[in-house]
Amino acid sequence: MVRNNHEKIDDKNNRVRAYIILTGRVQGVAFRYYARNIANRLGVKGWIRNLDNGDVEATIEGERNSVNQMIEWCKEGPSLALVEDIKIIWQSYAGDFSEFHVR
């Protein structure tokens, strides 16, 4: 299931920011480290971390197409993951990050 609000775009540069929460078997499967590798390949910036309740959260910024590709990857994750739900909250692009961090 994907819950999504409206995408907010920096129209001048086609850049977006998405905050996501992933539920399911998303911890203990190297999700964050695979995500960092994918983010670096796509050129998106931001962070990803585990939550105490077993979920994973991330903030992703970059070119709209690349952010959407990252979100599509997150819907599946690495081979041992089982993503049951993804919540996507689109936010205004801020340019806050110089790379993609695992927290």
Helix-strand blueprint:
Elements (H helix, E strand, L loop, with lengths): L1 E3 L4 E2 L4 E11 L5 H12 L2 E6 L5 E8 H13 L5 E10 L8 E3 L1
Parallel strand pairs: 1-6, 4-7
Antiparallel strand pairs: 2-3, 3-5, 3-6, 4-5
Helix pairs in contact: 1-2
Description:
The chain is of the alpha/beta class. It has a single domain, classed as 2-Layer Sandwich (Alpha-Beta Plaits), CATH 3.30.70. The chain is built from two helices and seven strands; from the N terminus they run βββαββαββ. Strands 1, 2, 3, 4, 5, 6 and 7 form a seven-stranded mixed sheet that branches. A hairpin with a 5-residue loop joins strand 4 and strand 5. Helix 1 runs antiparallel to helix 2. The radius of gyration is 13 Å and the shape is globular. The termini are far apart. The model has no long low-confidence stretch (mean pLDDT 92).
Name the features.
alpha/beta, Alpha-Beta Plaits, 7 strands
CATH fold-type name: Alpha-Beta Plaits
SSE run: EEEHEEHEE
Question: What about the largest sheet?
Answer: 7 strands, mixed
- Helix proportion: 10-25%
List the total number of helices: 2
Shape: globular
Strand content: 35-45%
Average residue pLDDT: 92
Whole-angstrom Rg? 13 Å
- CATH second-level architecture: 2-Layer Sandwich
Domain unit count: 1
Low-confidence parts: none
Mind telling me the CATH class? Alpha Beta
Number of strands: 7
Derived structural class: alpha/beta
* Terminal residue distance: 26 Å
Provide a concise account of the structure shown.
Helix content is 24%, strand content 42%.
